[in-house]
Design goal:
This protein is an all-alpha fold. 80% of the residues lie in helices and 0% in strands. It has 37 helices and no strands. The relative contact order is 0.02.
């Protein structure tokens, strides 16, 4: 045999051996994954199934097991990707089709769910899971009769199937027959008291029907049936809280805490509930008891310090944290230092803040939070170069952190590099998911840069994500007023009112825009309606009184009404309210009161032309002509560009004060 032929045969043998070895390794990973699943080690099992798929992409057994793990962990997107890969190659894989149908229904895609359920039934006729998947899809597409038919088919062979019973009940509920739906659920849960889903559906319907006694009894039964189930106890506690059964909620939260004494989130939830229901002292006592019972669980002491700080007891928090720093593990010491640094920063102790952050950075040079804290402290101290070093280091670790980018923008603005500040603000907006607060910060920057069109684009994008946010809607109205005038601003206000259910802030704004459009009648009507619905509203009372006084000054009844409304502001510390009171007092003949109030108002609002005009008129009338004319001249200068403007009235007052 020639050397060439031997080489070729040897190469083929190597390829075959490699293929066989890869297949064997894939099979071994798959078997390991199954064994890990039996042990409850789902994360490790998922890794084994992924290893199997890297070696053999066609091993759909492994892909299906991986999809189930992803689904159980809440990663529905990952589960769907793998399930689709299976059914594209093997549309007869009934269980994959059923799981896809359920995932599509959960995502709100009922038509896709129905398609996958039909494919499952085509592959495996009369399969109960496939029938139930189709029933759910039919119910959501409006075919209640078809859904009931599939559910009843399942119940023929499995009379206590909970999913089928829930479908029957939901169909009755959607048909408006909630009492019938409740009867179905109560009968089923009596036969199968261990099925949680039946209890939960029953609780929801009892609450909707207002049957409080039955609802309380049902929750009691659930507590007795599922005393050791943390998820059930959590749901019971939440439901009792919604029903304002605070004693029952506390009982459930404490039972949950007893089951999971070391679960920090459970303890935090219990403390939060106690703070609201029994008061801060009771919540603190609970946290202190946890720290005392388990002194080695330093996280409880950290939680106690955080609680003390958040409830206005920083000295207590500092004492706990200093003790932790002295005797805790290295990791906990750094957490304690960071919290203590935040407390010191809030108190204005810049030097200690820098020292504490530096101690953390010395053990972890890339600690983004510590770098950020130290950078902010350096900025407050005017050490801009040091702040810049820390910010660059922090951004290397967390380039997409919204707060860090906001701080970096502040630093760049102080340094006078506006373009870089804008870049950081744009990054902060993206990183925060267009958080309204961050968007408004960027909008202010763009307005200061005289780029209102960019602000309009920014607000439109933010409102696509947060359509009902009042702060964004308000910014949009004010921007329209600046760019397009009152008419567009009024239209934007009407839209904001529709999105916010008629929020008073936008009703006030609509009235203010009416004044700027020289329509005082509309403004007065709006203020009257607002005051009727909110008689204690100081803003509505002030605005109505000031509008009546300004635009109905020749009508004695209007003036009397304005003075009556404004009298509540006689001793106010708010200059705008004092201005209204002083002007209505003047129109009502109370000159001394008017002089006192308007002098205070003008001192508090020296740049407001209307306040200065009122003060000027009253002081002139009261014999203090020189001071009165000074106020009037200042008011005339300030009135340029002010809408509505008192300029013409000021000129008349100046002419009369010769």
């Amino acid at each position: 045999m020639s050397r060439t032929l031997l080489s070729a045969l040897f190469a083929c043998a190597l390829v075959l051996a490699g293929c066989e070895e890869a297949a064997d390794r894939a099979e071994r990973h798959y078997s390991n994954g199954l064994a890990l699943l039996e042990e409850g080690a789902d994360a490790k099992a998922a890794l084994e199934f992924r290893n199997a798929l890297r070696l053999d992409e066609a091993m759909h057994r492994a892909r299906f097991e991986l999809a189930k793990i992803l689904e159980n962990s809440g990663d529905y997107t990952g589960a769907v990707v793998n399930l689709r890969a299976i059914v594209e190659v093997d549309p007869t894989h009934a269980e994959a089709q059923v799981r896809l149908a359920n995932a599509m229904l959960l995502a709100g895609h009922a038509d896709d769910a129905l398609r996958h359920a039909e494919a499952a039934l085509a592959a495996l006729a009369d399969d109960a899971d496939a029938l139930l998947a189709r029933a759910g899809a039919l119910l959501h597409t409006g075919d209640g009769e078809g859904a009931v038919g599939d559910a009843k088919t399942v119940l023929t062979s499995d009379p206590d199937n909970a999913t089928a019973i829930l479908i029957l009940a939901l169909e009755r509920e959607r048909a408006g027959a909630k009492t019938q739906a409740l009867a179905i659920l109560e009968s089923a849960s009596a036969r199968a008291p261990e099925v949680l889903s039946l209890h939960l559906a029953t609780v929801r319907l009892l609450q909707e029907l207002g049957r409080e006694a039955a609802l309380t009894a049902r929750l009691d039964a659930m507590e007795a049936t599922f005393p050791d189930d943390p998820d059930v106890l959590r749901k019971i506690a939440q439901r009792r809280y919604e029903l304002q059964d605070f004693a029952g909620a506390e009982r459930a939260y404490r039972a949950l805490s007893a089951l999971r004494p070391d679960d920090l989130e459970v303890v935090r939830t219990l403390a939060g509930f106690l703070a609201e229901y029994r008061g801060v002292d009771a919540a603190r006592a609970e946290l202190q008891s946890r720290a005392d019972i388990a002194p080695g669980m330093h996280q409880f002491r950290l939680m106690l310090a955080q609680f003390d700080w958040s409830t206005g007891q920083p000295d207590r928090a500092v004492a706990v944290l200093e003790a932790l720093i002295a005797d805790a593990s290295a990791a906990t010491r750094d957490e304690a230092r960071l919290l203590l640094a935040r407390i010191k920063a809030q108190a204005g102790d810049i030097e200690t803040t820098i020292d504490l952050a530096t101690e953390v950075i010395e053990t972890d040079p890339g600690h983004a939070e510590a770098l950020s804290l130290r950078a902010r402290a350096h900025l407050d101290a005017g050490a801009f170069t040091q702040a810049g070093f820390d910010l660059r280091a922090a951004l290397e670790e967390s380039p997409s952190d919204a707060d860090l980018n906001l701080l970096a923008a502040q630093h760049q603005q102080v340094a006078g590099t506006s373009s870089l500040a804008g870049d950081h603000l744009a990054q902060a907006v993206r990183a925060s998911g267009h958080s309204p607060a961050v968007v408004l910060e960027y909008a202010r920057f763009l307005m200061a840069s005289d780029d209102p069109r960019a602000v309009a684009i920014l607000l439109d994008e933010a409102l696509r994500r947060h359509a009902d946010d009042p702060s964004l809607l308000m910014a949009r109205v004010l921007l329209h007023e600046r760019l397009d005038g009152a008419a567009k601003a009024i239209a934007a206000t009407e839209y904001a009112l529709s999105r916010t259910g008629g929020a008073p802030a936008f009703r006030l704004l609509r009235a203010d825009l009416a004044l700027r459009s020289a329509d005082p009648d509309r403004a007065i009507a709006e203020f009257e309606q607002l005051l009727a619905s909110s008689p204690d509203s100081a803003v509505a009372a002030n605005n109505l009184a000031s509008t009546l006084a300004e635009y109905r000054a020749t009508d004695p009844r209007a003036v009397a009404r304005a003075y009556e409304l404004a009298e509540r502001f006689r001793d106010s510390s708010e200059p705008a309210f004092l201005d209204t009171y002083g002007w209505t007092a003047f129109l009502s003949g109370e000159l001394d009161e008017a002089k006192r109030a308007l002098k205070e108002a003008a001192a508090g609002l020296p740049d407001n032309p209307w306040v200065r005009y009122h003060a000027g008129v009253v002081l002139t009338e009261g014999g203090e002509v020189r001071d009165g004319r000074a106020h009037l001249r200042a008011a005339l200068e300030l009135s340029a560009g002010h809408v509505p403007s008192p300029a013409e009235k000021i000129r008349q007052a100046l002419a009369a004060a010769q």
